[in-house]
Amino acid sequence: MTERRKILFICTANRMRSATAEKIYRDDVRFEVQSAGTHPLANRVLDKDLLGWADAIVVMEKSHRNFIRAKFPEYYAQKKIVCLYIPDEYTFMDEGLIVLLRNKFEDVYQRGLLGK
Question: What pTM, to 2 d.p., does this model score?
């Protein structure tokens, strides 16, 4: 069996979008997943350990990618970072959010944008 890809999902507060992504992909045999937020009061605050753990980083908005570039330039340069362009207008496990996450993430995965 091939090694599972380590995917880190990032949003702002780690309460809605990235937390939902982590939950829906938690039992997917293709991936190990974690999630974090860029805000200092996020449920799990993004840090170097999480960035170092990840094979690929999936952000919800361009501002999250820009945050990584500004605060963690060494990881920005080393890691695959993909933006799903999902706005902060959903609640945790919202049905519309789940459909959007699955469609966008699977597209990114199928196109090989998460690396090998």
Answer: 0.96
Task: State the Cα torsion 24-26-30-34 to the nearest 10°.
Answer: 110
C-beta of residue 14 within 8 angstroms of C-beta of residue 36:
yes
Examine residue 34 and state whether it is found in any structural domain, yes or no. yes
Please identify which residue in the block is written with the tokens 């999630």. Answer: 35
How many independent structural domains does the chain possess? 1
Flag whether pLDDT at 1 surpasses 60: no
Contacts of 27 (CB under 8 A, 6+ apart): none
Q: Is the pLDDT at 14 greater than 70, yes or no? A: yes
d(CA 115, CA 67) in angstroms, rounded, equals 21
pLDDT tier for residue 2 given thresholds of 50, 70 and 90: low
Is-contact 26 98, C-beta < 8 A?
A: no
CATH code, domain carrying 45: 3.40.50.2300
Q: Evaluate whether residue 116 is within a structural domain.
A: no
- Per DSSP (E only), the strands in the chain are 5-11, 31-37, 56-59, 80-83
- Which structural domain range is residue 33 located in? 5-110
